[in-house]
Design brief:
Elements lengths: L1 H9 L3 E7 L5 E6 L6 H18 L15
Antiparallel strand pairs: 1-2
Length: 70
């Protein structure tokens, strides 16, 4: 998990949380405030799907999105 966290921090993501679920799975939550179009968000999601495969991660469940405060 540390390698993944460091790699994401190197490209501007911020560590939020790491916890173990009831079924012994680890969840890493990172954040980064960005503005996207539907197309750019889709492309970012494709990139993360590729990284998940490359790193051998069992599950990537996508994004939480919202408005950036003024």
């Amino acid at each position: 998990m540390l390698i993944i966290r460091t790699a994401l921090e190197d490209v501007g993501y911020h560590f939020e949380e790491l916890h173990e679920t009831e079924d012994s799975q680890w969840v890493l939550q990172m954040s980064k405030a960005e503005i996207h179009t539907p197309e750019s968000l889709h492309n970012r999601n494709l990139k993360f799907n590729g990284l998940v495969e490359e790193w051998g991660i069992g599950l990537y469940d996508g994004w939480d999105v919202g408005k950036i405060a003024d």
